[in-house]
Amino acid sequence: xxxxxxxxxxxxxxxxxxxxxxxxxxxxxxxxxxxxxxxxxxxxxxxxxxxxxxxxxxxxxxxxxxxxxxxxxxxxxxxxxxxxxxxxxxxxxxxxxxxxxxxxxxxxxxxxxxxxxxxxxxxxxxxxxxxxxxxxxxxxxxxxxxxxxxxxxxxxxxxxxxxxxxxxxxxxxxxxxxxxxxxxxxxxxxxxxxxxxxxxxxxxxxxxxxxxxxxxxxxxxxxxxxxxxxxxxxxxxxxxxxxxxxxxxxxxxxxxxxxxxxxxxxxxxxxxxxxxxxxxxxxxxxxxxxxxxxxxxxxxxxxxxxxxxxxxxxxxxxxxxxxxxxxxxxxxxxxxxxxxxxxxxxxxxxxxxxxxxxxxxxxxxxxxxxxxxxxxxxxxxxxxxxxxxxxxxxxxxxxxxxxxxxxxxxxxxxxxxxxxxxxxxxxxxxxxxxxxxxxxxxxxxxxxxxxxxxxxxxxxxxxxxxxxxxxxxxxxxxxxxxxxx
Length: 485
Fold this sequence. Notes:
One of its GO terms (molecular function) is ubiquitin protein ligase activity. The chain is mostly helical and 485 residues long.
């Protein structure tokens, strides 16, 4: 292979140990035995180079073109080769600039972009420009996070291959590095068995579904959506919950401007407002007249405060007749909001407790200072470390408990839901007992007593969390859960 055909992803030295680079093998792993590995960008580059080399020998084009073609088909070598064998003109029809005009053969002329007289270079489509304009164009596209860049002519769909991009950006190594980074990011994005941690490392799993993974930096997150661990609620329901919370906050913003979306605010809204029949914005009546105009700029709907009918049809006529259907709809709407608030307030309460309990980590550090003294008193090292583990268990179980209220909100009421309520209740009681024990006893001088108390309680809390999550997993496997969403 000539130097011109060298793949643009250079070897980068790092201290990462070697690994099996063929991520396609992950699909054949036993789903019951998850394999998780933490990889660097250098590792991913090696995987890409191997995949590119495999198809390059068949397609007989340079590595940069292979990279573009693989990216077009989500790095699925099988699909790419099927297309290649089906169509004799596959490469040409892919609209990639296989032969760009060589800059050494360029001639001086007026650049159509900047109107300066300079050597003009371009692609096989014969759209030319000076090198400075090509550099500016490519830099702009790379800054827009694009790694599949078309010719700068507005009506041309020809894709620029990688070696030509490097040639035009040869004086700007920073932009070239950014382009290389984009191609790796694109590979990770299209691979169902890879996800990126916030620290920049890549986590590879033999499972592509939503589950908890732990990066080498210690970060725990959902493999599917990248959010913090949110067991037992799935990614779809979590997104619905987040949208609903945003919707409620927007809905109440006009009536409760300056208030937070806490329990007191919602209770005030429920007691003092009604929903606009058209846009469902909460409205407070601020005068004696029952002719109400919605203050939403996009609505301005007029209605009667008493019967909620549109004012153009209602007018100043009497509305003393009870309409059971309309009243039921309004009651049901408010009842659903009350139900949402029940779960929302408990979710937020556990979220707040999770934040406040972070101070326990500082107390554990204070206890650690006494380790040497404690060992001299006959307390073993493992018992001392268990204090930190107890705080970790509390944090993990509190977070699980927080998300159980989202799970319960969308859960249809049946026998399985009743069993879930029981497991949730047992976990909640155990978590509160452990939290109270740690907060009340952590500063005690008798650390023997503290260690003895926390060991049993921590193990029980961890056990109750396992029981709840096992029940949820079993229900999912048996398709026993029914959601009202």
